Amino acid sequence: MKNKRPAKISTKEVAVTGFAPHGVIEIFMEGDVLHYECTGPFNREAFDAMAVAQMAFLVNLKHPGPWASIAIGRESVMSSPDGIQRYSELMHTKLPPELSAVATAFVIGPDVEGGAIMGPYFAKIYAEIGRPFKLFTTLGEAMQWAQSIVDASR
After folding, report:
1. Residue 90: partners with Cβ closer than 8 Å, 6 or more residues away
2. DSSP single-letter state for residue 32
3. For residue range 98-113, what is the model confidence (pLDDT) as tens digits?
4. Partners of 10 in the beta sheet?
5. How wide is the angle at C-alpha 99 spanned by C-alphas 2 and 29, nearest 5°?
């Protein structure tokens, strides 16, 4: 039987309890890059739903070798203070190497609300966990940088 690889997963598909998530995050793999298409603003529950969707996706993916992640901000990347705190907690959770990116890039164009405000928060989180991180305004630049980190990790 052929190994089924999920094409895409979304936080819309994750069962939630309590308060509803604000924002939508869709996750898909392209080559060695796991993409997160993120349409905010986001609350704590959105990041909880992202963690559940991401784990379900990665466990089924079984990507051979290192991979990087790119989060693409759409409309808004604003988050409530408890949302960014929850994102930090999730990123500090230790996962097996095959479930962890070797680098992460965020693509936040000038038309995306909150990029200048939220970018430093995300950069701080990734610095704390010791993962290479960089902010970009275009996907092409982010893809080139992410792939170079993956290639260097092989």
Report:
1. 47, 48, 50, 51
2. T
3. 889 999 999 999 999 9
4. 26
5. 55
Distances from the Cα of 83 to the Cα of 33, 79, 87, 92, 96, angstroms: 25, 6, 6, 14, 24
| Amino acid 12: pLDDT | 65
H-helix or E-strand spanning residue 128: helix 115-129
CATH class, range 21-153: alpha beta
**Positions of E strands within 31-96:** 33-39, 68-74
Residue 116 confidence (pLDDT)? 95
Centroid of chain to Cα 25: 8
Provide the percentage of residues in the chain whose pLDDT is more than 90.
77
Strand 68-74 versus strand 104-107 pairing type: parallel
pLDDT at 2 over 50: no
Contacts of 16 (CB under 8 A, 6+ apart): 45, 48, 49
Computed over its alpha carbons, how large is the radius of gyration of the chain?
15
Nearest to 114 by CA among 19, 12, 45, 23: 23
pTM, entire model:
0.89
Write down the residue that tokens 């260097």 correspond to.
Answer: 152
Question: How many residues comprise the chain?
Answer: 154
